[in-house]
Design brief:
Layout lengths: L5 H22 L12 H22 L12 H32 L7 H30 L16
Length: about 160
Amino acid sequence: MSPTRKRDLATAALGTAIAGYVLVMAMYRWFPPITVRTGLSLLAVGCAEALWGRYVRAKIAGGEIGDGPGWLHPLAVARSLVIAQASAWVGALALGWWVGVLAYLLPRRSWLRVAAEDTTGTAVAALSALALVIAALWLQHCCKSPGDPMENGESAEN
């Protein structure tokens, strides 16, 4: 399984931001209010993944995978890696969406009252999505084995 490339995540976020901006331009009047709580679930998942990454990293660094009490099963690490990669993609798409919405709202908040009210919640949601992407990439990094050739930037396709 190859690591998720930041370039691919950035491309997905940019494409989603453009599509989101166009969609918001056409349909903003039918959107429900965007509150500060709107994106906090992304932040909660990001925090959970960051804590899990810290735990996995400590277990791997301590050599406690598969050898005795308190060990971490290799399948748990593999599942964590899959969750990290999926979360990175979800976070990138959510970040793109919220950046697109924010790009629509910021220039209109001085003369459109609803846009001014939605700006704070949209910014919190965008930052929460960014936190999810960062936490997912951190968890992915923590799932590497100590002797992993990808650690030093070497390619597996030599």
